[in-house]
Specification:
alpha/beta, seven-stranded mixed β-sheet, Rossmann fold, 19 helices, Nitrilase/N-carbamoyl-D-aminoacid amidohydrolase, 584 residues, homodimer, 2 domains
């Protein structure tokens, strides 16, 4: 039987950690080598981590990454290793090294460079123009990188039309809700269209605003899912791929004979690898390593569990990769801080999380009870630091300058800022990272205080709309089999408690109305007219759009948070602060 | 004599202000029409302002910009108007409209899209492939946009080889130190190489982190500068260009016969404009409007006056275009806040600037005297708000939680944060914009307190290294003919005054050593080895590099400031926070 054994290493590299990433890669090579794979595969830019951003403008960084690759080469024996790195010749390329017996056999250069959303690859890389096909005994295969596979007339198609029977596609593809389904549809279509087996390997882990979900896939020429990597965790998949069917399918449905290749100059190479498929039938791969198919990828919309896990991994990796051991969170007794605390505990453990409750005279008894109940359920330390004395000191210092004007935003923001200062004080004193608790609805309309509740190093739920905060909290309780987040927190009306009897709805439309307007405006770039046609109230839409536009200056100073929607704030949405455009 | 009369309108549009920009453009058309120009020219993306960033992802914004262009068309009579806008067909283009007698004659699409530094044009636009040459009576000319002219084999060369005798190049080219000289050298080479007259029109004004310097140039076929627009101010230049010489030069030195055009498919059109050069000899253009040549562009390195003016314009436009009338600044008696206050006064007038002096027990008598002297010299209001009472309130609230640990960074930062809160309190109460006073040296090494002295809406000297802060302050005093900034401020040792007898040099190398290391590392992307070879101390370099890398998280939350160096923080330098790369 014509077959090949692939080992897909879904690893979690760290940006810039060349020696750490090399160590991780060599460990996988040594471990998985036991199963005699023909090919061991690592993700896109596995050597540098993704995205290295402007580190790529440093020539010494490029050189160090090449030295790191040479270190990896030495550990490659009688099999093929495919490793993502930055290649350097007359320019730099997002590349895949093809290594065999310690030698660099070939280098593939990514052809289609993404330059939208969070991606800036035209800023750094030159696109490749070469479509190599590798011949290994009777088997032919192609390699390409991430974005390449998204083009129907891209390298996979060209490589297939030149005989490739399977494609190895290495990725650093960030998560957002619903992406798994989109990916699976595209990959299965691509596999079927070109009568190919596709081994899609994705990196995993958090990097600043991004979280890579792993969730590698192997899909056969009939669009069938044959193996699946874990979501949001490192994983190794060792799988035997049968290649009899791909050629058979081509004879029976030879669509791909028509493929002419891209219009511009391009180059097809056939590269012969002196390596037949190994005799590895006797070496059994444990079932747990075969990438059991759970079919989570075509389940339609994202599940709450999937989103929650993305937030946990993104938070853990930000904390750990930046060298922090512990975090602190301002607990208000409200749902946002409760959810963030739950995420933090799942990310780094209850012993490493401290809640700080900072009441004023506006704080209700319920808020205190709920904050303490949450801390108890999570098993985290809770400190109480009342802010009234500091507030009074500010107000008396400012009284002569506030000119008898009535209390308002200035006084409300002071409370939030005192809390921010106390959290930062504890951070400075004990080296804790402050997690902020703002959600996407608040970030969108600026319902947050700069240097107040926005003060902190990382914002786990920054891209989570308030209505989803509720759903994730409910899911967390169901998943835990108990009310980790106190039930009352899920039912009481949201309030900032910066004045007596304040409710979020005093300033904002109800979240069930606000959130769909925000999605239409921010994620879908709909106009005022189009949102009106969705059935929302005209004045409400106008108010929301104006708030979003006018609070760009706040978002520009907000801490990074985890992207979970198709358009997050931060690198993903680049908006001018100075902007007089009004679309109504 | 074969001649053409050009009117170059160096205007200051505002991003997104379509109706305001249209009004400004029509006003110039009406005013300059009196001089019977053959061609009236407006800058790149004059209709939308530059850069519109992700506004370009909104289809309704594109449509509104096209409606705005149609409004402009109506005001164009018997002459040609060239106006930068966003064209829409199967995709969107960075484009120049060629308008005549109310009709859109042609549209040029920018061919070379910048996607480095602060530019993201591949994120938005499709590159053009067409090289039109316009024929107007006996005269032939070409149009191209900004980046296009930086390519030696780009459109200017192709258009010249197809008969164009002059080129109109419209720009939104942001300022940085030394760029004027680079631009002039390139443009004069391009003009001479191709035997062309080049009319280079640049936009002017501040937009968030960018300041456009205007400084439009007209250069003849012998590389001679024949007209120059104002720097950092709106300007109109009406100039008669003689075109006899360009053809003569081609006959005598026909280098450009060799030009073959770009390698890829491209399209040359000759478009005949039914408009002979006008009989406008009798209409005299006042000398002041002829773009007097001051030769400031090939003066070599940037002058202090030029940099100062860039900061003034950038600050004014941020304040005014965002709808603020007044600003406040924390005055410490030190040089940074003194320079920022001077810039603010020059930007928006002394009546609109309030200094706030916030002493503690660590504040020296000299600092108080210097802050008051500065306020008096500038004629600004100064308020004094001591922060000791608030600090004591914090310390007593935190005492039980700080666990008897010795005072340190936490206590120092608290002082800076109290000041930040007071400034923000005044901002919230009175609607003043807070200007922060941090310089580039501090921003680089993180010698600043998040939510403390970094709190504010705009950071005028964020990209000015400390050594340049001194030079600009000295220049300001010389230019004013008096010590606006008190002399002692220029001579005393810099200190943050957050503990007794503190000096910046307790924590940092002297600025004369720090600044060149920072330039090598940040602007020039030099490695540790390379910086060592410049002659600096090894430990000092290591410390500085580590500080720069580790304070990326602070910079990510800093307010925008004006780019004046070839690499500023912000959109210009995109660095990961999570980054374990160490180059030593």
């Amino acid at each position: 039987m014509k077959k090949v054994r692939l080992a897909l290493c879904q690893i979690n590299p760290t940006v810039g950690d060349l020696s750490g990433n090399v160590k991780k890669i060599i460990e996988r090579i040594n471990k998985l080598g036991e199963y005699l794979p023909d090919i061991i595969v690592f993700p896109e830019l596995a050597v540098t981590g993704y995205p290295p951003e402007d580190l790529l403008l440093k020539p010494h960084f490029i050189d160090d990454n090449i030295e790191a690759l040479q270190e990896i080469q030495k550990s490659v024996g009688d099999f093929i290793a495919i490793v993502g790195f930055v290649d350097k010749s007359e320019d730099i390329y997002n590349a895949a090294a093809v290594i065999h017996q310690g030698k660099l056999l070939d280098v593939y250069h990514k052809i289609h460079l993404p330059n939208y959303g969070v991606f800036d690859e035209f800023r750094y890389f030159k696109p490749g123009k070469r479509y190599p096909v590798y011949k290994m005994g009777a088997i032919k295969f192609g390699i390409n990188i991430c974005e390449d596979i998204w083009y129907p007339d891209g390298p996979a198609s060209v490589q297939a039309s030149h005989g490739a029977e399977f494609i190895i596609n290495i990725n650093a593809s960030p998560y957002h809700m619903g992406k798994a389904g989109t990916r699976f549809k595209m990959l299965s279509t691509r596999a079927s269209d070109n009568s190919l087996v596709i081994a899609y390997l994705n990196t995993v882990g958090g990097q600043d605003e991004l979280v890579f979900d792993g969730h590698s896939l192997v899909i056969n020429e009939h669009a069938g899912l044959i193996a699946e990597g874990k979501c949001f965790a490192e994983d190794d998949i060792v799988i035997d791929i049968c290649l009899e069917e791909a050629f058979m399918k081509r004879l029976h449905a030879p669509h791909d004979r028509e493929v002419a290749g891209p219009a511009d100059n391009y180059q097809i190479d056939e590269i012969v690898i002196d390596h037949g498929p190994l005799k590895n039938e006797d070496v059994l791969v444990p079932a747990a390593m075969r990438g059991t198919v759970r079919s989570v990828c075509d389940a339609g919309p994202a599940t709450n569990g999937e989103i929650y896990n993305a937030l946990v991994l993104g938070t853990r990796d930000y904390v750990v990769k930046n060298g922090f051991g512990k975090v602190c969170i301002g607990l208000s007794g409200g749902i946002d801080s409760s959810l963030v605390a739950a995420i933090a505990v799942d990310a780094i453990g209850n012993d490493n999380v401290t809640g700080i409750f900072m009441p004023t005279h506006f704080t209700s008894a319920e808020s205190r009870e709920d904050a303490y109940a949450l801390a108890e359920h999570l098993g985290i330390m809770i400190l109480e630091i009342p802010i009234r004395p500091v507030l009074d000191a500010y107000l008396s210092s400012l009284k002569p300058h506030f000119r008898e004007l009535p209390p308002g935003i200035a006084e409300e923001n002071l409370q939030a800022r005192i809390r921010g200062n106390i959290l930062m004080g504890m951070s400075n004193k004990f080296g804790w990272l402050v997690l902020t608790t703002g959600n996407k609805s608040e970030m969108s309309v600026g319902y947050a205080t700069l240097y107040g509740d926005m003060a902190g190093g990382f914002a786990p739920i920054k891209d989570v709309p308030k209505t989803l905060v509720f759903k994730l909290s409910e899911w967390k309780n169901i998943d835990s089999g108990k009310s980790v987040i106190p039930e009352r927190v899920l039912t009481k009306a949201p309030t900032a408690e910066l004045r007596f009897d304040q409710k979020d709805t005093d300033s904002l439309p109800p979240y069930e109305i606000l959130d769909p307007i925000l999605k239409a405006y921010i994620e879908d770039d709909r106009s005022y007219e189009e949102i009106l046609n969705l059935g929302f109230d005209s004045d409400c839409i106008k108010k929301v759009i104006a708030l979003v536009d006018l609070s760009e200056y706040k978002r520009r100073q907000s801490p990074p948070g985890i992207k979970i929607t198709p358009r997050a704030f931060g690198r993903d949405r680049r908006f001018p602060i100075t902007n007089r455009y009004r679309n109504y």
